[in-house]
Specification:
three-stranded antiparallel sheet, Rossmann fold, SIR2/SIRT2 'Small Domain', six-stranded parallel sheet, 11 helices, alpha/beta, 242 residues
Length: 242
């Protein structure tokens, strides 16, 4: 059924969550013993107000990176790139910040990272963008909360932190894609974090077929045209092959 839906589709939007990244060996960090259990999350307000919170934030980010630095794209990521090469992919909307879609080869104009990505560091004062390695090397040399070398502003990964709003323009584009596609594929998301979780609902309400591939239950299972609980890398590559 999945292969038929993909074959018949002309404009596919893919929506990915943590489940596609766990297949690359990246923990979801909510699991027992994960980052979220060992480090208290730091809100953007705390980050801006307190040096101690900035140190805690960067300690958590460094631990997260050390756990996932060897992870690479998996068969699911590569299958999405295949859809792009076939001319069927309208775009990828991801909740993930690991940048694996970029590494896999998804083109920038086909990718919306609604929570940002950890491959970049941004200065919150002047907006200068640095590669992650710039901060990583400074952290390994003993800096606890690196500052911008140009203006002295606070540096942080170019991601959406707790208490920080999503980019309204990115959200607007994501909902626009959902309303224009004829097949919406949800891969590895529990669809409980709003407002992103409403994007597939918008696609379904606008007439698109909705397919959900994830091991857990989701609030949209009842309206999905197809629900698959197997691993993404087990089912998607075969479904996109010619």
């Amino acid at each position: 059924m999945l292969k038929q839906y993909i074959r018949e589709a002309q404009s596919i939007v893919v929506f990915t969550g943590a489940g596609i990244s766990t297949e690359s060996g990246i923990n979801d960090y909510r699991s027992q013993g994960g980052i979220w259990e060992r480090f208290q999350p730091v809100t953007i307000q705390e980050f801006m107000a307190s040096q101690n919170h900035r140190r805690l934030y960067w300690k958590r980010k460094l631990a997260l990176y050390e756990e996932s630095k060897n992870a690479g794209p998996n068969a699911g990521h590569r299958a999405i790139v295949t859809l792009e090469r076939q001319g069927k992919l309208k775009g990828v909307i991801t909740q993930n910040i690991d940048g694996l879609h970029r590494v896999a080869g998804t083109l920038p104009d086909k990718l919306l990272e609604i929570h940002g990505n950890s491959l970049e560091i941004i200065c919150l004062l002047c907006g200068e963008i640095w590669p992650w390695q710039h901060a990583y090397e400074r952290l390994k040399q003993g800096e606890e909360a690196p500052l911008c070398l140009k203006c002295g502003g606070y540096l942080k990964p170019n991601t959406v932190s707790f208490g920080q709003s999503l980019d309204p323009l990115v959200l607007e584009m994501a909902f626009g894609w959902a309303q224009e596609c004829d097949l919406f594929l949800v891969l590895g998301s529990t669809l409980v974090v709003e407002p992103a979780a409403s994007i597939p609902r918008a696609a379904k309400q606008n007439g698109a077929r909705l397919v959900i591939i994830t091991r857990s239950d989701t609030p949209l299972d009842d309206i999905a045209d197809l629900k698959i609980t197997q691993a993404i890398g087990e089912v998607l590559p075969g479904a996109v092959s010619e």
